[in-house]
Specification:
single chain, 98 residues, mainly alpha, 3 helices, elongated
Length: 98
């Protein structure tokens, strides 16, 4: 190990690492964007919640955030399965027919 470098650090700056991660898993970017959007909407709605108690508001916000995560995971899984089983199989069928 070189001095000053962490064992887990890879060469390259943070921008290239983020771009590589986004290319490997595009739904990570969607998840991060959803997190930022949920936080912004939650902060705005907290100010305009009226007479709703804070605990009820936070429970509703948690349920909405969990629903967003489940939807994103389901979409990502469906996309991965589509690429793995449908696209890959059609490519293999094309190779066999040629």
């Amino acid at each position: 190990m070189s001095a000053g470098k962490s064992y887990f650090e890879q060469p390259g700056d943070d921008g290239s690492r983020l771009a590589r991660k986004a290319k490997d898993s595009p739904f990570m970017v969607v998840g991060l964007a959803g997190f930022v959007a949920a936080a912004a909407i939650g902060a705005y709605k907290y100010k305009t919640r009226g007479n709703m108690s804070t605990s009820v508001f936070l429970m509703q916000l948690r349920v909405a955030a969990q629903g967003t995560v489940v939807a994103c995971l389901t979409t990502g899984l469906a996309y991965t399965m589509y690429n793995e089983y449908v696209v890959k199989k059609s490519k293999e069928d094309n190779k066999l027919s040629n």
